[in-house]
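Schema walk-through. Below, the input block comes first and the output block second. Nothing else is stored per chain. Lengths vary across the set, and this one has 464 residues.
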Amino acid sequence: MFEITLINFLIELYQYSDKAYKRIFIHEFMIEKSLLFEILRDQNSWHKTPKFQYIDRNEYLEQIEKYLPSKSILILQGPRRSGKTVLLKLLIKDMMEYINKNYILYVNLEDYRLVQYYSLELLEKIYDVYREHVNPRNEMYYIIDEIQNIDGFEHFLRTKYDNEERIKFIITGSNAKLLSKELASLLTGRTLSFEIFPFSFKEYLNYQKVEVEDNSYYALESRKHELKHLFNHYCNNGAIPEYLDDPVKERLEEYFENVILKDVVERYNIRNAKLFKELGIYLLSNASTLTSYNSLSKTFGVSINTIKEYISYLEAAYLFFSVTSFSFSYKKHVTVPSKVYCIDNGLINLVSFKFIENRGKLFENLVFLELNRSKKEIYYHSDKKECDFILKDKLKISSSIQVTVSIQDEKTKKRELDGLLDAIKKYDLNEGLILTEDEYNDYEIDGSKIKVRPIWFWLLNKED
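--- output ---
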């Protein structure tokens, strides 16, 4: 009787205890190999011809495939629902053209049949089942989707990597801070990371089955109405793939809630979830505008350190990005106000009640997201005048960009030009760029070339 009671107690403890206790008992409740092989067979193409009906994301694929021959662990990071899983499937499609499909093991840890078995033992058992049933001794590509669901996954990767086994790991995760922190401690020098974001404008056109073969302005001008119509939709509604497939406001609201609650509040055990969510809504409402830790501290009645911590969590979840003013002085660099940008324009419009007045902010946020794909360091310029963006390439400031709806108004034109010229002079640049809704022009002022381009055109041809 006592033994039965004890067993029942241990089972209940396993069901309701935290992860640390679960690890003690997990081996008693491990998944059966037959069920695991059934799941892996469902997820892979070993015994079937796969059907791939996805939008190509060639820019990402070219970057990733270049490093497939290396031993480095490839990490695909980015916000939830940005298309990492689809990208993996596109990658597998390409790989199968020159790699035996039996050498490829893909596992999606979000599969509901695996959730209750999350553990390091699960990763090892997946490996064992694959070796026993599919590929006993040849090289293998172990592709793990949403690996952050497994506590301590970096230990598994490190052990396999250092054992010189013929395994190429490709992994994805939705939390930048989680991955970088854990991988930095044990996998230094063993990884290469790629950040995956929602659709660019080019990818959005591809999604809409609109082909653009000639990117020159005069070729595109004849299609201006069509492209601007699509751009307006892209600018206002964003480019989260899942939302594009089902464009109802509730889906974006659910996305925001999931990032706030699941990716941050639950993961970091934030006690005041209400305040944290209010901070997220406030930042959405003030995207593309200057803000400071001090002002946010006063607004929400919490310490500056708490605000810093909360914003770092939101950035780790890829919901927001902070851009600071450039300065060669580190002290000045970290104390000036920051501009906060959001991962998707559709989320900004969730809290916008003044669409027309908000258009300039949406343009600026969109330009930031595109610049963020360039892998250059992004700052804003603030000296005698202000400039929206300056880009740092290695040790040198290489570009300056202003964003506005229009420069038809003389006061607006003067303000934008003054800010741009101030940055050009400060950083010894030859030219600057102003992005507007419609204007296309070139100026030469004080020996500096000023380009004015429509934002929709620039998104398709940034080198012009």
